[in-house]
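Repro:
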Amino acid sequence: MKIRTDFGLLWQSVKQMGAEERDFIFDMENPQDLEIDDQLERGIEINLEDLETTGGLLSYKGRQILLYIPDQGRRVSDVIDNPEVGRKFHVADCRTLNDMRGKGRFERYVITNELSGVFKVSGQDPYSGYVEGEAALKVCKNCLSHLNYQGYQSSPATRGPIYKGFTLDAFFKTYSTKFRYLPKRGTNRKGAYSEDWAEISRSFRASKNWTCEECLVNLGSAKNLLHSHHEDGNKHNNVTSNLRALCIDCHRKQAMHDSMTVSRADMDTIMRLRREQGLLAALAGWDEVFELIDTAYDGVTRKIMLTARALPEVFGDIQNGKGEVVITPQLSWPGQKYAIVDNEAELEILAAAGWRGDTVATVLQQ
């Protein structure tokens, strides 16, 4: 849980002492949450009927998860040698899982949010007997289609590269704003930077007036959401020509940043500031829409782009009859009073405001 408050008096005292402000976030972790995370990292057995979903994504207690079947049957040895022949893991509530439910399949399903992509497997080999091992299982193609991940539904020619290039880090990053809790990553970020990086970064961002050089949002009121990006990937090359000020949303979209996630609260802050600063008004085309939307809505945007007659309003407020803002969908069409929202509860909010809409899951399966 992140606690955010006004530290104005604290920084005033800091300046009186001749020091400078420093960005920081004070994290408090609930022991129960830590226990759930530890369990998920190891894997939790579950019945298909007990699966939770968020916009078609598999979830568990506010966490994004994936599901796989450890029992690889008689082919277990082959799977360990060649994971491509193994049972696929699932990241969405796809038609394969629905078929399994319909057939009453009762295998030992395991859910996890461990991102290595290597799974514990077992089975009864016809020659060696019971075998246990590990295998880098592959993602279910029906899951990718279900979510239209990276435009998977669009063209048969693109499906192969999307499937082969799939990584769990990139996938979980794409949908990080959908979930309250994010997977643990054992990366020591401090060790990757020079000792004076905090001072260098702050000075550089200040020289850019706390403005993202990609989307142009000014984050002077939320300085911790502006990062200093190393263009060549070398975190010790701190010359100004190698640095670029990027908001965390634009930063995570850079190459080799698959482990960088953004919380829903931080993304909402960035989107609100973009809107207040006029950066979401009069978008010139779909390319600009894709540059500015939350990546969690990339799949549904790619799908609706094929049939939409007009560009959507991105992150636009919807008001009720009293002029009160009741919801802010990522994608809406004010002229048609139509919006795409996350769930049935939000559809009811739309209807009460005199709007119509569809859920993300519904649009993706049309």
